[in-house]
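Please annotate the following for my students:
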Amino acid sequence: MGTPLAVLLVEDRAEEAALVLAELRRAGFRVTSERVMTPDLLKNALASKAWDIALTDYTMPNFSGLEAIAIIRAASFDLPIIMISSSAGEDVAVEAMKAGASDFFSKGNLVRIGHAVRRALAEAVERRARKKAEEDLRKTAEQFRQAQKMEAIGRLAGGVAHDFNNLLQLILGCSNLLLDRLPPEDPSRADIEEIRLAGERASSLTRQLLAFSRKQIAAPVVLDLNDAVRNCEKMLRRLIGEDIHLSLSLAEGLRAIEADPALLDQVLMNLAVNARDAMPEGGSLEIRTANARLGESEGGHLGLEPGEYVSLAVADTGCGMTNDVKSHLFEPFFTTKGPGKGTGLGLSTVHGIVKQARSAIEVESAVGKGSMFRIFFPAIDRTAVAPVATPAKPASRGGGETILVVEDEDQVRTLIRRMLQKRGYRVLEAPNGLEALRLARRETAPIDLVLSDTVMPEMGGIELARELATVRPGVSVMLVSGYSQVEIGAAHFIQKPFSAEDLARKVREIIDGSKKP
């Protein structure tokens, strides 16, 4: 025996309702039912439980069958409705069907009710399946449009950050060279220091743009997400303030993930700041972790393959957001805050970091009911290893080694030359890859390192490295770019903007490494 058929009867006469139910039972249905006679009783019944089918009379003292259909349709799009009437005229039937009835027949023909109910139920199942398929198609199309939009914005953001990093290289590099020359008591130092600090802040913004466009440097390691959250807890509490209660719900037996710990910290901080700003009067912030298995449907909606994942959820009790705001949430510079109260890069940075980690993020939110951001990281079978931080050692000076600097921006090339000469290196210069090749062929002395920009007119750094393998076999090449090492695919790499100390350390490591047998 199956589940009883839940029948909602809109009928003022008890004996008529009894006849209908008896005929349904004769047709083989097990029935549970409720009879209503007024609009209010009908609304209450619709709100109280889920019904399989509604049967309504056409004419009743308190309200009409057409009014009943309107009330039912307002509450349920796909609940089958059959109108049963003693007035079986064609005009009445047409009127009922236009109003939303699935079928119509006369009370004098109740023997049809079993067949009519089965057909109405089958049509309802078909309607629901069609509606779900249409909704799934709409969501997939919307996600595809959103992905295309984010990809286009990401390319633009990455290009802007790359170009801006060339300017920042000059601002920061020249500021540091000036500071190195001036005595501690020089009054100009304060102004130059302000310029340097402004450059550092601008550099932080470009890093966020690169993170959004998935072109930031990442150093992923196998880690325990629970440990990462615990390590960040104290900092998060300082960020959100005392009027927001932070709670952690960390699952036991959590599988390992592969992520950059520093970028993961940035994700947690940005989500916490976003939650804090959504709760100006205080509230609650909960961070949850869990193992998750995504099937084809769930994974498909997120752009992920089916399989095992680890989820990180950050939920707040803040003001929530509209669907329109949600659709723009991860776009760079989009913000609902007032002027001067945010860059609009926090969530776009989160999006970029998550995508770069081959993961996905989803958002659930409603106005007045808070928001929840949930990230799915691919689970891996390896054991998490806590990274050990090693302090950077000061770079050794050069010993007259020759470095070929290849950079199409004259000012940047001059700055790099000055940085290297100050550290004791002999520097050759070329404005592009072709000139660098000619110089490499002409130069009789050994070249210990080629330091080349990646994107240049005539010949870029990657093609230059391939050509140098023939012209100068064994020469080391370090590429420079405003993009990331992953984007460039180089063994030796430094990202703009870099300090003289960072450059000297990297150069020394490569040259010393090439001398080892």
